[in-house]
Amino acid sequence: MTTITTRTVEYPADGLTMIGHLALPAGVDRRPAVLLGPEGTGLSDVERRRADALAELGYVAMAFDLHGGRYLGDPEEMLARCMPLLADPDRMRGIGHAALDVLRTEPRTDPDRIAAVGYGTGGAIALELGRDGVNLRAIATVNGLITGRPGEAARIRCPVWAGVGSEDPIMAPAQRDAFTAEMQAAGVDWRLVVYGGALHAFHHPPVDHTVRPGVGYHPRHAQRAWRDVVALLAECLPVTD
Q: Tell me: the pLDDT tens digits for 9-56?
């Protein structure tokens, strides 16, 4: 296994002190980088391990924070914070830009080779960075098929990959259709993968707290979605030794 180094990073965003997780590959050279966003519950060891796995593949990876160092295991508390956030593109962009600035200023990061990968709320933030015209090489969103303000998807300058469970009641067929119509109308290079039988947050291992109805882990599709994300990065943001 490739030796990696990790550290926490603190930075201001959304009126909070965010605490992100930065993972660096072996070596001292500049590398392509991935900004990694969590589900609405917030940054957890799941995202930290994903950032570490990306570092093992040769990427500088930063898993960003949503709630000022807190993990919102209570569904009602999570919804109370995330629903207003998801309805406010400028707030989402602010959170995304703050994390992206930290990633860009890391000396190991090649600032011209960055992708954004996000899950749920983190995926919505990744898309909003694209709609804001940020120079990204790829965007991947799982369970975060959120449409933006009219016309702004035309600012997306990279391929967009999206994944969703076929039985996800939160990202229902009408939501998927609206998202794909937005991407198509904007001329985006987009792909949507629907994972048969999977619920919302199908990629996330089981948790020890109450979850919303329609949420559930699907181990086989979780592995497939991760492989699909890695394949997108290999295509759009290859690591060269």
A: 999 999 999 999 999 999 999 999 999 999 999 999 999 999 999 999
* Residues recorded for the chain: 241
* Residue 228 contacts residue 106 (beta carbons within 8 Å): no
The per-residue pLDDT for range 130-174, each reduced to its tens digit, is 999 999 999 999 999 999 999 999 999 999 999 999 999 999 999
Predicted confidence (pLDDT) at residue 87 exceeds the cutoff of 80: yes
SS (H, E, C) the chain: CCCCEEEEEEEEECCEEEEEEEEECCCCCCEEEEEEECCCCCCCHHHHHHHHHHHHCCCEEEECCCCCCCCCCCHHHHHHHHHHHHCCHHHHHHHHHHHHHHHHHCCCEEEEEEEEEEECHHHHHHHHHHHCCCCCCCEEEECCCCCCCCCHHHHCCCCEEEEEECCCCCCCHHHHHHHHHHHHHCCCCEEEEEECCCCECCCCCCCCCCCCCCECCCHHHHHHHHHHHHHHHHHHCCCCC
| Rounded CA separation 155/18 (Å) | 27
Q: Which residue has the higher pLDDT, 13 or 209?
A: 13
| Beta-carbon contacts of residue 215 (< 8 Å; ≥ 6 apart) | 199, 200, 201
Closest by alpha carbon to 139, among 153, 119, 118? Answer: 118
> Which token pair is 177?
């259709």
For tokens 């070596």, the residue is: 27
